[in-house]
Amino acid sequence: MSFPGRIQERTINTSFEGLGLRAELLRAVAEQGYTQPTPIQLQAIPVILQGRDVLGAAQTGTGKTAGFALPILELLARKPAPRAVRVLILTPTRELAAQVHEDTRTYGRHVNFRSTLVYGGVGMQPQVDALRRGVDILVATPGRLLDHSRQKTVDLSHVEILVLDEADRMLDMGFIHDIRRVLALLPRERQNLLFSATFSDEIRALAGSFLRHPATVEVARRNTPAELVAQVAHAAEREVKRALLAHLVKTGDWQQVLVFCKTKHGANRLAAQLLRDGIEADAIHGNKSQNARTRALKNFKAGELRVLVATDIAARGLDIEELPHVVNYDLPHVPEDYVHRIGRTGRAGASGEAVSLVAAEERPLLAAIERLMGRKVEMRAVEGFDARAVVREPQPRPAQPNPQQRAPHRTQSHKPAPPHHRPQHPKPRTHPQAHAPKQPPQRSNPDAQPQLQVPEPVPGYRPLTAHSMPQKVPALLGGNRQRKH
């Protein structure tokens, strides 16, 4: 399938020197150990330097951030200007925003520019102070950026370049309305760059609403994982998943494992269980404070944590060099999220392994993932953890009392239960005549007239007669006690 303005993938073996970047940027790239640009960098950098809008898609972990950060830094250096927000980079999550900001500062360490980071979960005042000092590049999440806009602590009227990074994730998280509000705050004349790990129809619709004749850069078939990621699945019911994960970590001597759960509570519970199993683990998700999330991620990168349990909020923005293992403890309900999850490993040419623990009810989810990728995931049995061996024993039913058997007589060994333990059964109501001696049955006479049952007179009761009616009724109605004739 071809797209208008699409730049076909090239396999020319070139270096960063031939991409039009200044020496200061090339020096920073070399200090990071990069010598050859990745396909997305090779194609996107020259187009961005030409000032064109770009719709770029690449597998996660292929150097997408450098693909737009390097040419942006070059363009800023070519046209010095007073301190103002000239570049706005929007990301869906705090982790991704922090990673993009860190990478941008790394690539631009030898050029004169200033950047700052704006996201929620932390105090606004330090961000306000940084904005007042003046910045060239602002990396932000949509919600906190709009908070600053409402409080008039940020000026976006000088933005020259807008970058939407991981735009598909923004749509998944419901940021489409926030994105449109941000677009309304920007100058109409600007350069627009939209980057995404996948190219859905919704992404193309969003791109068509503000990109102007974009160059489409797509270096791999969309929704496909990196080829260097080995994928394997183990059949495991939910009752044995935790034990199987601990077994894999210990027997395989895994030192750095990123595990994905579907719920925040499940992530906390799994991390606590792994700690009890003697495995250093922590959880990261949306309910954690920003400081706790930053600390857990820092410890994981430093090797102080063997297992980091995360929800899909961490599927984007986690850039960990040579992460060897990713585990899908719960399969995602959206197949595209599987691609993003396992994209945390096998980055920048390194190999990695993605392991999925699949319960019986998750087989349809795995089938949907395989249809999306166009390939099968190898199912591999683990000795001692075969899913077929997990058989739920039928629970014995409680013995039902036999109505024909008499209850045993109470003996000295059968002590009555304390009053507060005795079951409270409602006492059956009995008619006063229930215990009266039974009368012998009488034969019914079909010719006999039915007899009215007259109740016995109550002592002191005088029946109301026709003669006494005129006197009694007015008295009941509040009239005179005696009617005069």
What does the model show?
The chain is an alpha/beta fold and 485 residues long. It folds into two domains: 6-218, Rossmann fold; 229-388, P-loop containing nucleotide triphosphate hydrolases (Rossmann fold, 3-Layer(aba) Sandwich), CATH 3.40.50.300. The protein has 15 helices and 15 strands. The chain has helices at 23-31, 39-49, 64-78, 94-107, 125-133, 142-150, 167-172, 176-184, 201-210, 238-251, 264-276, 290-301, 335-342, 363-373, 469-476, and strands at 6-7, 54-57, 87-90, 115-118, 137-140, 161-165, 191-196, 215-218, 229-235, 257-260, 281-284, 307-310, 325-328, 352-358, 378-379. It has an eight-stranded parallel β-sheet with strand order 1-8-2-7-6-3-5-4, with helices on both faces. Strands 11-12-10-13-14-9-15 form a seven-stranded parallel β-sheet, with helices on both faces. The longest helix is centred in the N-terminal third of the chain and has 15 residues, at 64-78. The N and C termini lie far apart (113 Å).
